[in-house]
Amino acid sequence: MGLAAALNHLLNLVAPAAALALLLPLCARIFWSKTAETPDWIAQAAINFIVGCAVLLLGLWGFGRDGKMLTYTALVLACASSQWWLVRPARR
Q1: Is residue 14 part of a domain?
Q2: Alpha-carbon distance 69 to 62, whole Å?
Q3: What one-character-per-residue DSSP string does 52-85 give?
Q4: In a domain, 51, yes or no
Q5: pLDDT in the model for residue 57
Q6: What pTM value is reported for the model?
Q7: Can you tell me where the transmembrane regions are (predicted)?
Q8: Which domain holds residue 84?
Q9: Angle formed at CA 75 by CA 73 and CA 76, multiple of 5 degrees
């Protein structure tokens, strides 16, 4: 496999995590009000992308291949949980 094919495979692996990481902070602004402790949308997208890539890599390692629906379900649940954790009101 050449460098271009390997890069194509890597980009296709992380594409769902990137799309979800960019959409979640934008949708969170609609449903949750911004508080002083809420990070900006770039930080939220970066954290969601890291969480999403970790879930996809765990799914690839666990199942031996990518594209399993259980991995995508775990991706959505993990990114939604991290987004909720980022925008939740501070507990005092």
Answers
A1: no
A2: 13
A3: HHHHHHHHHHHHSSS--HHHHHHHHHHHHHHHHH
A4: yes
A5: 94
A6: 0.86
A7: 13-32, 41-63, 69-87
A8: 41-92
A9: 70
